[in-house]
Amino acid sequence: EAGVAQSPRYKIIEKRQSVAFWCNPISGHATLYWYQQILGQGPKLLIQFQNNGVVDDSQLPKDRFSAERLKGVDSTLKIQPAKLEDSAVYLCASSSNLLGPTEAFFGQGTRLTVV
Amino acid sequence: DQQVKQNSPSLSVQEGRISILNCDYTNSMFDYFLWYKKYPAEGPTFLISISSIKDKNEDGRFTVFLNKSAKHLSLHIVPSQPGDSAVYFCAASAEYGGATNKLIFGTGTLLAVQP
After folding, report:
1. Dist CA A96 CA A85 (whole Å)
2. Is B93 on the interface with A (CB under 8 A)?
3. Which end of chain A has fewer CB atoms at under 10 Å, N or C?
4. For residues B44-72, b (16+ Cβ closer than 10 Å) or e, as one string?
5. DSSP assigned state of B83
6. Residue B98: is its pLDDT beyond 80?
C-alpha cells in the first residue's frame, strides 16, 4: 500500500512570496489533515477535510493560508504572502475512519524556510 | 490552550531498561488516544493506540496505560533499545464541531536510549 505522498520535500522562499504544497493521501482515505510543526513543538492542526469538505479550519490563518481538496483526493495548501514565522514543517496525513476513530498516516512533510 | 501536554521534553534511559513517557490531557471529550514516533526528517509514524473504554493496550514491547479519572496516559517501552531513540508524540482524538477523529498532538518527548 502506497503511503501519503507530499511534495516538495524542501522549499526556501523570501518573505511576502507565495508557496504551495501538494499532498496525495492513501487511496480510499476520506479524511485528510494538514499540520504545521514548528521546531521544538508538536504538530498543530491547520485544516481537516472529510472527502472534499472542510470539517475544521479553526486554526488556519485564513488571511494568508488557503487549502483545497479537489474531488476528495489530492490536496494543496497555499501560503500567500509568506511571513518569517511560517517557517516550519508542513505535514499532510490521512485516515480512514470508516469504523470509527483510527490512526492517521503521515507523509514525510515539506520543510519550508522563509528568509 | 494546550489540550494535550507532555511535560517532559526529554528522557534518557539505558538500553534494556524501561522507558516511561507521560501525557496529560484536559478535554474530557477525547475518546481515543495514540502514540506516534518521529525520527528526524521523517513524518510521525503510528505506534500504538487505546480507546477510552480500555485502560491498557499492549503490542510487543509497547504498552499504553490510560487513567481517565486523572486524564493521564503513559507509554511503557520494555526493554528499551537504541533504535527507540526518537521523539514521541502523544495525540488525542475527539468528535466535535462536526469533525470526526480530530487529532490533537502534544509537544513531544525526546527519548534517548543509551547503549
Report:
1. 32
2. yes
3. N
4. bebbbbbebeeeeeeeeebbbbbebeebe
5. G
6. no
Residue B48 identity: I
Mutate to test the interface with A, among B101, B105, B109, B110 (most CBs of A within 10 A): B101
- Give the amino acid at A55: V
CA distance B17 to B80: 6
Mutate to test the interface with B, among A35, A46, A103 (most CBs of B within 10 A): A103
Q: Cell 517557517 identifies what position?
A: A87
- Between A and B, how many CB-CB pairs are < 8 A? 71
pLDDT tens across A28-73, in order? 999 999 999 999 899 999 999 988 899 889 999 999 999 999 888 9
For the segment A24-28, the average pLDDT, to the nearest whole number, is: 94
Residue for grid cell 518569517: A84
| Residue A72: predicted pLDDT | 82
- In angstroms, the Cα distances linking B58 to A104, A105, B28, B83, B112 are 19, 20, 23, 19, 22
Cross-chain CB nearest to B98 (options A41, A42, A55): A55
**pLDDT tens digits along B39-71:** 998 999 999 999 999 999 999 999 999 999 999
- Which residue's entry shows cell 536510549? B113
A39, closest residue in chain B (CA to CA) = B107
